[in-house]
Every structure is written in C-alpha cells, then in structure tokens.
Amino acid sequence: MLHSKTFNKKTRGGRIQKLVREVYLRDDIYCGASFCKSCEDKSKARLTAAASTILILDTNVVLNQIDLLENPAVEDVVLLSVVLQEVKNKNSAVYGRIRNLIDNPARRFVVFSNEFHRDTYVQTMAGESPNDRNDRAIRVASRWYQSHLGDAVKVLLITNDRENKRKATEEGVSAETIESYVKSLGQPALLDLLVQPASEDVIMEEVEDMRPSKRKVVYPEHKPMSEITSGLTKGIYHQGKIRVNRYNPFEAYVGSESIGDEIVIYGRGNMNRAFDGDVVAVELLPQDQWHEEKSLSIVDEEDDEEDVHLVPGSADDAPRTTDPVSSSTSDTSPVSSRPSGCVVGIIKRNWHSYCGSLEPMPMPAGSGSLVNALFVSKDRRIPKIRIQTRQLENLLDKRIIVAVDSWDRQSRYPSGHYVRSIGEIGDRDTETELVLIENDIDARPFSTQVLACLPPLPWSVSSEDLNKSNRIDLRHLHVFSVDPPGCKDIDDALHCTMLPTGNFEVGVHIADVTNFVHPGTPLDDEATQRGTSVYLVERRIDMLPKPLTEDICSLRADVERLAFSVIWEMTPEAEIISTKYTKSVIKSCAALSYVEAQARMDDSRLVDPVTKDLRNMNALAKIMRQRRIQRGALTLASAEVKFQIDTETHDPLDIGMYQIREANQMVEEFMLAANVSVAEKILKEFPACSLLRRHPTPTKEMLEPLLRTAAAVGLTLDFSSSKALADSLDRAVSDDPYFNKLIRIMATRCMTQAVYFCSGELSPPEFLHYGLAAPLYTHFTSPIRRYADVIVHRLLAASIGIYKLPTIFRDRPQLTSIADNLNYRHRNAQMASRGSVELHTLIYFRNRPTDTEARIVKMRSNGFIVFVPKFGIEGPVYLAPRGDKGGGEWFLDDQQQRIKKMDGSISYGILQAVKIHLEVVEPQPNRPKLQLTLV
C-alpha cells in the first residue's frame, strides 16, 4: 500500500522546503519474537520465549540511558525505526553504540520498522510538532505489539517524558519510567547507571539532591545561544576549543581565529564549567585584568580545588591568579600582550566517559545505602565529578568509568553517574585498559562477520592471483625489508638493482592489503572505524585481524606475497628519470632489523647482493635527504622512549631514548619518496577526491615559546620559511652535545599536527606539508597499519586503470567525514602510546629511585619543567614551597627565561643542566606519580 509522507526540510540558504515522499506500507514486517504465532519468517528472531516482558524505548531513554542499556541485565528490547532515526540525527556516538547492541545476537535487541508497517505508520496531524508525532508513533507501535503478541508477554513502554507516559496510560499502553523499571529488576547496583535528566518535563522518581542545603551560586550563568550567536557576529565574544594545561588544571587556552591569538583562561571560575575539548564562547576581560605569562605556575596534585572559584559580581570578583603559587611580580606589572578571558557559554560539549577512582572516604552506616562520592579522573585536566552510588564498598579500590550528566551553576562539581568497573587500582592490565578507554581505542576482538571476510589459512599466491590486476612477477628480484626488531606486520620492502646504463632501478613494495579488504564489507567498515593500529609498550592493537597483518599481507622473508609497487629509474645522483606503479608479486629474501641492516652496511667484509644493494640504497638516500633538507625540510626530534620488557612478567627491565641509525633514515627516505610520487599520481587523475596529508605552517603565536627560549640563550631563529628555520636549527650549536637536540625537540612541540584531508576541500597552496617542504604528500606505505593508506591504494589502482573508483569517492561529505575520523584516530593512537609509556615509566621507577641529569625546558613562577634525556621523561620540579601563593623567595625573569632567588644567590636558566632525583610517590591515595626533585 502506497502512502504519501510530507515533511519540511531546511535548505542551505535557510528556506523551508516542503517535501512529499511516497511510503510503501507493508503488513509482513517481522516483529522479532520467536514465539510469535502470526509472523511466518522467524530467521531473524531475537526475542525469546523466555521473555516475560518486552521493552519499547522512547528516543530520550536511548539518548540518555545508553550506559544502562549496555548492561547485560537489560534485554528483550524493541527499537522502533522512528526512534533509531531520531537518535541518529541527534547523537551519532550513541547511535553507534545502540547499533552495536542490535548487531550482537546475545543481547536480544530487535529493530522494528514501524514507519513502514501498515498498522503502525502514523501521519502528522494538523498543528502537531515532529516530536509529538514521533511520541504518538511510539505509543501506536507499543499498542500494536501488545495486540500482536497477545497475553504471551507483557509489552512495556519505557519513557521518562511525563506527558508521553500520561497519554500512553490513557490509551491503554503499559508505561513506566526507566527508574521504576530498573527498581523492579531487584538489582540496586543498576540504579547507579541511571542518568538523572534536569528537565521539568521529565519525571524524577528517586534521587534527591544530597548536596548541602545552602545553595549559593558558584558559577555565572551561561548565555543563551541566540545571545552567543549575536555576540560572535558583533565581535563581543570569541569562539574556540578550550584546552586545559596538563600541568595546571586551573589554566586553559582558547585558540581564537577572530583575534588571531590564544586567549588565556585563569581559574575554574573563568572556565565556567567548560571541560577540556569543549567549543566555547569567550569574552575578553578588561586589559588591566590580563596576566603576565610569568604568573603561570605548576599546580600540584595536592593543591586544593576549593579555592579556585570566582563569580563575576561576587565579593571575590577581582583579578587574581588562581594558581596555588604565582609570581611575586604579577601585582607590579599585571598588563600583558596576552589576552585573558572568561567563558560565557558552551557551544558544543566534549563530555564523554572518564576513567579514574573514587576519592577515599569513610564507609557510611548501613551497607548498600545511597551515598554521594567524588570521582577523581586519571586525567588531571578533568574536575572531580560527584556521583551517587550504592556500591561504595566495592568501588573504593577499583578503577571505574564515570559519565558526566550535568553541571549546575550552584554546584562546585559536575554531576555524573557510575558506568562500570575496570579492575583493581595499580594492576597493569587494569591501568592499560584505562589508557585505551581514555583515548577511545577499540581493543575488542574482531567479530565473526569481520573474520568471515578473510581468506582461509594457510594462504599462498595462486595462479589466479598472478593473472589478476595486470600483476607483474618480481620474485626474481633481491627484495628485502628493514624494520624494528621483532616486527611481524611488515608492510614495506625494497629493492635496488644496478642497470646496464649505470642507473639504478629502485622499488618500494607495499603489502597489497586492498586485494583482501574490499569496499563495503564488514572488514572494511571495521578498518574505517579503527583508522589505525595502536602501539603500546607491551602490545599492539591491530586495525586489521592478525591473519592479515602477520601472515597473508606481511612481506615476510622467503614467502611469496602480493604487493603494490612504486618503481623508479634513478641516476647515481638520485635524480628520478621515470616512475612506474604496478601490482606485483614478490618474494622477500631477507627481513632485517635496523640493527642488522646497519651492521651489514658497516661491515666491509660483506659483499653479498643484499648488502651491496643496501649500501647503494643508503648512498642514494643520503643524496635524497640532503636535497630535501636544502629545499627546506625540517629535521626535527622527538623524545621517543624504548623499553626492554620481560617476556614472562611483561614488566619493564630497562628504559632509554630510542636510537636512530642510518638504516632507519634510509628506509624513511624511500618511504617519503614513494608517498610523494603516489600523491602526485592520484591528484593528477582525481583532483577533487584524493586523500592527501598536509602539515599547516605554524603560527607566530605557536612559535613564541621557542623564540623566547632561543633569545634567552643567545640564538636567533628565522621563521620566515621552513628553509630559514631548518638553517637556523642547523646553526643552533654549543659546547653542550645535547643542546641542538633539545632545541629541535622544542621546535617539534611548536608545530601544528599534520592532518588528512580531501583535495576537493582546499586550494593547492593549502596542500603544503611544511615539515617536509613538500607541495604534495599522502600516506601509501603502511596499509596494514593505517586506513588512510588503504584509501590511497584504491585511488592509485583506479588511476592506473586496474579497478574502477569506488562510489564513496563521489561523496565528498562522506570522504571528509572519513578524513576527520582518521585524524581523530591518529591523534588518539599517539596519546594512547604516550599513556602506555607513562604507565610503564611509573612501573619501572616504582622500586628504582634514581639520580640523573635533566635539562630545563620551561620556566614557571614556582619552578620549572625539565626533560630527562636518558629516559625521555618530562616533568615539573618545584622551587617555591608547596602552597606558597607568592612564589616564595623566587623571582621569575620572563625576558631572560631565568628564575632567581631574591637575594641573588641561586638562579636557574632555560636549557640549563640540573641534577634531579626520580622517585614514585603517592601524595593522594590511588594516584601514584613520578616525583622529580632537585638534588
């Protein structure tokens, strides 16, 4: 039966467009119950005969109570298509989580297409809002389900909407609030999972506000969005993402395009309930309330949060630093060129689940009673979160996950709810899982649908593989790989053959992952979401299943493997004469580690073919590298740490800086060259839909810390171009052998993040990769580990006529969405790797107090931040007594980047070497930290 459906759609120009769609209504849509006597097709049955109650959820319950719905106690649930569509439109993250529940057969969640069933479709009535129409559709579907299934089961509509519940009851539909239903399950612990919405239209059944009765205003009210929009247009407010200082959670920065500078936000009062990562509207404070940057200080774990609030208009509303220790000079010269501001509204929240533990507290009388507790996030940038729990006794020694629900202006802390426990505090597996959850890393095993996409093992190259894709046979070549020791997911290999002309044929051979990962399959969808492999200290979390990463695609020695090859003819001066792109089959003759490759090149007695090829490639790589540097490529440095891990206990046995050899640089050079060549090829063929990687030029504000440091040590750095900066860094030398590396590490930290983008979104000048001084760049060389490379392989295959370009490349918004996800996943993988390093550093030093040398890299009013070269560790060292608000007897000379004692007897300067003591301490229960103190 055909039916016309009318709805309004807002166009890009702001006009309301009336659309009419024809809907085909059916009466054979399966209800999902295995015990149903009416429906014939039971192949997708999820609701079992054991179900005594079937739940139908309204939209707000799904949106707000997803943590509860993910608990196994909630089962036999019908999700109506009208609800799913609303959830998808309002919150894509919650939609993804509810889809995971639907896709899991064990959870008994079923989708019913009520919008296409003849008996449950409802038309919009005159004057009825879309929300009211959807609520009515939910009630109609609930009534149909009860009638359809009869007395075999109770159908219960779950809604916290007062009006919807009232109408359902009047219409003969059984309806309950989520709180009431959870109580009926007889599991009090489940009540901890409930979100308590703060809306008048929502029924609040159980939880009373257990805060103190004197409810004074702690924070200013957020401006309404209409006022914020108007203020942004007029330049009164400034929009940007707020970033909280990792060393001082009472200090934050908002990058504002409208004023071309970062706005500093001092104190939780001025942050006005903003969380790290929120998009906020900021109002500048009067200039006489701007703070000198020298007033910035290090805040310690023990510093009291109670003193950090001020509300404009209150008695405390005066310009002051909220840091526990501040510069003694800040009162004499408060004006600075650094704008300060306060948050007036939240444009977009960045709330998610947080990992940490409960603040220790005495056990209340009466087991299982509802108590208020304060949750302390592992991430110091996050304020304490007030939760209510009936499980205090079980949770005090656990790492737990908490979600934020709201933050009332009359409350010092945000309110949230308990989600789940991770494990015992201090357990390495628990702490590692915490790192993964904090950074939104999906470490779940691959689903059966994903694994079903893999070819059966053992896999080997067949004659059919050789005949497909115009694949050429390169098994006769001396192909070899050079990787970190113990590498199993080998996705690149090389060859270098001297030609009769005296030129070289050089090949970069990359695992042909797209031969096995096809667009639109569950395997491809999973890789799209994961985006990248994640490397922790003791393990790897794969983007693709292990049979692919370590066997079928891995270019291991002495086995035939499929590859995608870039082959150049090069002169002995490393000039490229021609480039060829082809699918191939190779047989690697050696899988070398960097150390092994370096040893071969250095041993003059070795003259075997692979060693000679290595030396030839290294000679070419050195020329290529020098030419790249002459073009302006930056040679930066990072504090990369390497652990030696005990194979049985997985505890760290040793820690040190990662050593870079010529062999590393050789491989890197040819991978860079392949990426550049592929970028040129795909952009030429597909100028509107190529996936490229850009590195934006750093702004002057970003480089300011490095400029100040350089000036303080007598260096002049030229930032007019990447070439000028590269030359400046080369000249930054002193008697100290570590001086240049420190300057390069500091320069690295001033850079913007490199990002993926769709070529059709930007103009060619914006394609520039600043760090590489390359006008074009992409990622092609690691498809086992990065989904970006999988996309680029498909583009390259289409550009040389092997395959048609997948349809997704015609959908620019979707391509942009994929690029955004890749950037998000890449950043999270980096942060997870760092978190893993920090965890294992704590484990290593737990019973190894150590004295060592460090270098001062940042000055603060109450001390400085040091970098420890031997261990790659960075952390704060205090000079002023803890809690001294005036900076004690120390004075910070911001211009000279030097902190001095008032009597002039002692001073410390930027980049100075100091002796420090490293020791793990626990100033607060369950919050161990590595403490650095001056010896």
UniProtKB/TrEMBL annotation:
Keyword presence, Hydrolase: yes
Cofactor or coenzyme needed: Mg(2+)
Record-level Gene Ontology MF annotations: 3'-5'-RNA exonuclease activity; endonuclease activity; RNA binding
Domain PIN: 53-166
One GO biological process term: rRNA processing
Main location: nucleus
Region (Disordered): 296-340
UniProt-annotated location(s): Nucleus
Protein name: Exosome complex exonuclease RRP44
